[in-house]
Amino acid sequence: xxxxxxxxxxxxxxxxxxxxxxxxxxxxxxxxxxxxxxxxxxxxxxxxxxxxxxxxxxxxxxxxxxxxxxxxxxxxxxxxxxxxxxxxxxxxxxxxxxxxxxxxxxxxxxxxxxxxxxxxxxxxxxxxxxxxxxxxxxxxxxxxxxxxxxxxxxxxxxxxxxxxxxxxxxxxxxxxxxxxxxxxxxxxxxxxxxxxxxxxxxxxxxxxxxxxxxxxxxxxxxxxxxxxxxxxxxxxxxxxxxxxxxxxxxxxxxxxxxxxxxxxxxxxxxxxxxxxxxxxxxxxxxxxxxxxxxxxxxxxxxxxxxxxxxxxxxxxxxxxxxxxxxxxxxxxxxxxxxxxxxxxxxxxxxxxxxxxxxxxxxxxxxxxx
Length: 369
Description:
Layout: E1 8-13, H1 16-23, H2 26-32, E2 34-39, H3 50-56, E3 63-64, H4 72-89, E4 95-99, H5 103-114, E5 119-124, H6 134-145, E6 148-151, H7 154-163, E7 168-171, H8 175-188, H9 191-195, E8 205-208, H10 212-215, H11 218-230, E9 235-238, H12 241-249, H13 253-257, E10 262-265, H14 270-278, E11 282-285, H15 288-297, E12 301-303, H16 311-315, E13 319-321, H17 326-334, H18 350-362
Parallel strand pairs: 1-2, 1-4, 2-3, 4-5, 5-6, 6-7, 8-9, 8-11, 9-10, 11-12, 12-13
Helix pairs in contact: 4-5, 5-6, 8-14
């Protein structure tokens, strides 16, 4: 550095996908600047939180707010109250960095904007065009509040330009690609992590479900269970705590546990989940992050929703929107994967570009290793 004050960033994270994204950015930020890492506590379970910090080498949070549970509205309200004093105390912060589309993202952007702090949004511009999804509301509002909008793809940037956002738009690629490029080749070879679940490479499905639209609605939850138990292939199903609770409330846990082809497991760490993903016949999920990770791994994805923000993966034939329709799921599983899989989301250096963009917009350029 030349003696000028280094870039100071306050980063807000709260759930598994954000831990993964931050792992590609935080170490680089800290190499030449200063970061205050704030964990809202949205994912409080160690299997969804602490294990990712340990596996990914993510710096320990500087602040733990412990805001977990409750409805989207009540959780966001508690996050706002908890984040305000933290941001007020960080008076020399150059910008607030948020990731994705969660309640933590929205709360971080709202408090920063109200305190007059610039907001930088990683994964800006993603759109499912379904405003019934809490995630869509979060990402649209966050983009309106952001001074710097860091996009994973040209399609996301085009969405922002159509909407006429006032902030600077930059396509940096997807920070999850950075980590996947390192971890997925190694994870593909970890067949021990696959066999530990009683399945064989290429002969099972990996399934996840946690979105409120699928698990909080009793009718859709029953349809989800029916879909999973009706597929004639072994399924490894890591159960999100939210999903497990809803299954128990509806008396559906035993139906899944008793299905001969369904393996119910606890939430998995990043490496183990990556090993199961890379060796699966296909993925069934309502997770936005896992849709993208499946594409990066070259594994067909069946999305348990009728819309997705990752539209490019659908256009190229690697992702099929089956919602909770068993016939659509079976038909998708019978199709061969496409021959082509272009690099939609960058070259694995998005983390460097994020830090570069932050430095150009808000301060002196930090050293990047």
